[in-house]
Write a structure and sequence with these properties.
The structure is a single chain. The chain is mainly α. It has two domains: 330 residues, no CATH class; 181 residues, no CATH class. It is built from 28 helices and ten strands. A four-stranded mixed beta sheet has the order 8-7-9-10, with helices on one face. Strands 1-2 form a two-stranded antiparallel sheet. Strands 3-4 form a two-stranded antiparallel ribbon. The longest helix is centred in the first third of the chain and has 30 residues. The chain is globular, with a radius of gyration of 28 Å. The termini are far apart.
Length: 603
């Protein structure tokens, strides 16, 4: 009712009835909000419930701390090593660390959760706009969204302190931008918007290198949707490749390698299809994921039967995520997956589900959605994995495991979101650092979990020319980085932050990223003062092995490799690193120091 002014004073009159179409659009809008809000809320609650940070997340936080301390993007001062598989995540943490009152571990956890939830919201809205662009006037219901939010490993990696949240945000936003491009008629897309979209797609390899293939698929789809002339197409592709190419030049010149150190350590160029297949089954089996995926295909068929895309541009749009998911899946299968259950399948799952995160309830869609909802309830409440999800054929080893449950058990904490929770798992190492600092000694400590050294081995004296705060030989690089001062040395036994360790030949047939265990003689030659060699028992490393390792480190290509990461960064050093990056990346060192001495010194 409205008040109007008459000669007799204000009089209440009836307001005009809203137009029927406006009422219908308002109902649609409320239904759309509900369809997006409900799965998002569930995802946010479960992500918060399972919040944590893994050891790999702590690897990012140490590098961010080094950046904030003015030491550059390194893990140890004096050795330029790129431990981060996600360039953007590393620098985002450094930026947030400069302004956030929280410690970096909690910042990584909460930022990851925020980006994960935001990525799902933006992806859902992109799918909503797809159906509204197809003139669908029915309310939409969650379909693929139910599948995504029901998988427990999705909840786990909504945080974890790694780049997963950034990946989900990039995928969801890329989908939304692609839908926006499709909604505009050919020729109506503004040049600035086209180029900025291309720049965003090009961020994929910086979010994570294996998203490079997805970025290429998105860039090609964008060109097919806008159908530009040759000059605009070249400008678009140039913008897409500008940041990745620029960073690759920096990587080669600063670190002296073509790929991040973890990719070299894990031999990402190798093909391990059998282990990759095991990793796929490891993901599908515990949650019976083929059940909802078959039902999703049924919904796809029903929707297409009712509203088949009539034009080529729509087919391009809806096919793009599937093509990207296929390429991403091939990569995961080829490299043999990962040791963390479900982690590398997360972006694939979201890509597959993007066009049908929501769907109109036409014909038999509602019964199919009801069955998906039943599966989602059963999966979310009852279907779980054990600690070990795929055992290894090697005695005493595992191939894939539930990383979150491992760390919750180790730390004795339901939600291990701080570095302190992880540091508490190694009280003897923390005490060793305190004692050495109080006594003014420069020592190299050994993680008691490192099997190559006896547990009663005394601290080894550090080389005189190394940093003052001591060092730690450890397999869990992240917690080692949290314990060791920034001017100390974290001596990695798995090659993720160790130049020699990353380049050695494979020493074990174990989980992905755990196949290059650096023999003790190398770390002793690299970091221990020669006066401490007699303290090393022969069961750990013989004196001949230590001598051979020390000799090999000063010879030929191996010496040049060490200089590429330790020599002062000057324009000439940058140029030498840049031009020698490809042969340096392909360099492999025999794990046996005696064989390495023969290879590099006897020429």
């Amino acid at each position: 009712m409205n008040d109007v002014l008459t000669a007799d004073g204000p009089t209440e009159v009836a307001a005009p009835a809203p137009h029927p179409l406006r009422r219908r659009l308002a109902r649609l809008y409320r239904a759309d909000v509900a369809a997006i809000a409900l799965p998002t809320l569930v995802f946010a609650i479960m992500g918060w419930h399972r919040r944590w940070i893994t050891d790999d997340g702590l690897i990012f936080t140490r590098t961010a701390r080094q950046i904030l301390a003015g030491n550059g993007p390194v893990y140890n001062q004096g050795e330029r090593v790129e431990t981060a598989t996600s360039t953007l995540w590393q620098w985002l943490l450094a930026l947030l660390g400069a302004i956030s009152p929280l410690d970096l571990a909690r910042t990584a956890v909460y930022t990851g959760l925020f980006l994960s939830v935001a990525g799902l919201v933006v992806a859902l809205d992109g799918t909503r706009r797809l159906f509204r662009g197809l003139a669908v006037t029915r309310p939409l219901v969650p379909v693929g969204a139910l599948v995504f939010i029901a998988v427990p490993s999705v909840w786990d990696f909504a945080t974890a302190g790694m780049e997963t949240g950034l990946m989900l945000a990039w995928i969801g936003t890329s989908w939304s931008l692609l839908v926006r491009t499709w909604l505009r008629p050919v020729g109506a897309e503004h040049l600035g918007r086209t180029l900025s979209t291309a720049v965003f797609f090009g961020l994929g390899p910086l979010v994570r290198p294996d998203l490079g293939a997805t970025a290429v698929v998105l860039a090609v789809a964008q060109l097919l949707l806008i159908r530009p002339g040759l000059p605009r197409a070249l400008a678009t592709l140039g913008c897409a490749g500008l940041l990745p190419l620029g960073y690759e030049i920096f990587r080669m010149g600063y670190y002296g390698l073509v790929v991040p150190m973890p990719a070299l350590t894990k031999e990402a160029s190798h093909s391990v299809w059998g282990r990759g297949w095991d990793y796929l089954i490891d993901y599908l089996e515990p949650y019976r994921l083929w059940v909802p995926m078959v039902l999703v295909l049924v919904v796809v068929g029903l929707v297409l039967d009712r509203r088949r895309p009539a034009d080529r541009r729509t087919w391009i749009l809806v096919a793009t995520p599937s093509v990207a998911a296929f390429g991403q899946s091939l990569y995961v299968l080829k490299v043999g997956g990962d040791f963390m259950h479900g982690r590398m399948w997360l972006p694939v799952l979201l890509l597959v589900l993007l066009p049908l995160l929501l769907a109109p309830p036409v014909r038999l869609v509602l019964p199919a959605v009801a069955l998906i909802a039943v599966w989602a309830l059963v999966c979310g409440v009852f279907l779980r994995t054990g600690i070990v999800t795929t055992p290894s054929s090697q005695p005493g080893q595992n191939q894939v495991w539930n990383e979150r449950d491992v760390y919750a058990g180790w730390t004795g904490t339901k939600n291990p979101t701080t570095a302190g929770a992880h540091v508490g798992t190694l009280p003897s190492v923390e005490k060793g650092f305190r004692d050495a600092r109080d006594s003014g000694r420069r020592v190299l400590l050994v993680d008691p979990g490192y099997p190559m050294f006896p547990r009663d081995l005394p601290p080894l004296p550090l080389r005189a020319d190394l940093l003052d705060s001591g060092g730690l030989i450890i397999g869990r690089l992240g917690v080692g980085g949290a314990i060791t001062p920034l001017d100390g040395i974290v001596v990695d036994v798995l090659g993720l932050a160790n130049t020699v360790g990353a380049h050695i030949e494979q020493t074990a047939n174990a989980a992905a990223g755990h196949e290059k265990v650096l023999p003790a003689a190398w770390n002793i030659a690299l970091y221990v003062d020669p006066g401490g060699y007699p303290l090393v028992p022969a069961t750990t490393a013989t004196q001949e092995q230590i001598r051979a390792a020390r000799a090999a480190l000063g010879c030929g290509d191996l010496r040049e490799l060490l200089e590429s990461v330790s020599a002062p960064m000057t324009p000439s050093r940058f140029w030498d690193n840049l031009t020698g990056a490809y042969p340096r990346t392909s360099l492999r060192i025999p794990s046996d120091p005696v064989a390495a001495e023969r290879k590099f010194c006897e020429r």
